[in-house]
Amino acid sequence: MRILQLCPKPPRPSLDGGCLAMDAITRGFVAQGHNVKMLVVSTEKHPFKIEELDSDYVKSTAIEAVSIDTALNPTDALKSMVQGKSYHITRFYSKDFINKLEEILSNSQFDIIFVESLFLSSYAPIIREHSNAKIILRAHNVEHSIWEGLADKAPKGLKKWYLYKLAAQLKKYESTKVNDFDALITITGEDADTFRNIGATLPIHTAPFGMDFSSSVEASTKEVNHVFHFGSMDWNPNIQGVEWLTKEVWPIVRKSISDAKLILAGRNMPDSFRSDPDKGIEVLGEIKSASEFFKRPGIMTIPIHSGSGMRVKAIEGMSAGLPTVSTTIGVCGLNLEHGKHALIADSAEDFSTALIDLLRDTELANELAISGKNHIQKKFSNRLIISELTEFLDTIKP
């Protein structure tokens, strides 16, 4: 197939789960022999750096980028609210991007145009005007669900009202615009159900994040000696989750295990999170290699209470053989069995109890790690996921 992939940020370098998810699709399509062309948005937060990309990757994807200023602007945000528009969407709408898109479509023909995320959905009419390709929306999340969750957790006041307003605008946009596409790809079955419930009538296929695994699914036995959270800290659900972990969960753990250690790692760490030896908290901030970090003998936590889609770090960490404690939302879409593949808890008391049990019981931690790793490697092979996705796309392409 001839595929044009539109991305709201460069998939490489893979700075967060969204980047990894987009890159997995690209790698999968290329490995199957499809002709892939990429057009990505370059922003201040996620700049496009072609000099840092592998030459084979650049050649196989013919990747190009357009710079868009997506920085938050209070005036533009207020204007969008007054006009009843979603500011999340309008920030990504650019005449320069339209010009480049029209240029590409006038010079090349495509079977499939893969739109990564709702943020680029406003370009669908431009695509229709210049191409007969089938347009596929890949929804990494149900965006309004994320903001509803953030609003639920926010204290009463103007911020809470504003977050609910943003969520309502996004929900209206998602419910009306999703059917502008020829098909929808979701990351989880739960997200697919949500889209159907808000009015989606187009064909829907679920394609979770996948990884390239070795044939071995054995996990090494190791004694866990700390708890950690690893994730991009410029994402509000992660910020809220870590605040809950440090303020409500961790004091209970320390009361039971006085020398317990918590490590916080991730890019764009807010200044509000600081190392505190008296509380056993160490803040590392951004790290160079996730794979190296996951070799540490720790317990992975996923403490988020809002969001949708799939946590890529859950697949990465569990596939590396790490015992995991998560909220229900944190492992959505992974089909995990509590007590067998991971420990799942939503209250501070239950979450802390799970951490205490694993810190005290090395055998339990390793049994959980091995079972979780086997499950992830069997269910989330990128080769299998891309094969099933390609079969679905074959049924709708021109």
Report on this structure.
With 398 residues, the protein is α/β, with parallel strands linked by helices. The protein has 15 helices and 13 strands. It has a seven-stranded parallel β-sheet with strand order 3-2-1-4-5-6-7, sandwiched between helices. A six-stranded parallel β-sheet has the order 10-9-8-11-12-13, sandwiched between helices. The N and C termini lie close together (10 Å). The mean pLDDT is 89.
Give a concise summary.
The chain has helices at 17-31, 55-61, 74-82, 87-90, 95-107, 124-130, 143-153, 158-177, 189-197, 236-256, 290-293, 312-319, 348-360, 362-379, 382-394; strands spanning 2-7, 35-42, 64-67, 112-116, 134-139, 183-186, 204-206, 226-230, 262-265, 281-285, 298-302, 324-326, 343-344.
Unreliable stretches covering 5 or more consecutive residues: none
Provide the structure class: alpha/beta
Termini separation (Å)? 10 Å
- In spatial order, strands of the major sheet run 3-2-1-4-5-6-7
In the CATH hierarchy, what is the superfamily of the largest domain? Answer: Glycogen Phosphorylase B
Query: Helix segment count?
Result: 15
Strand content: 15-25%
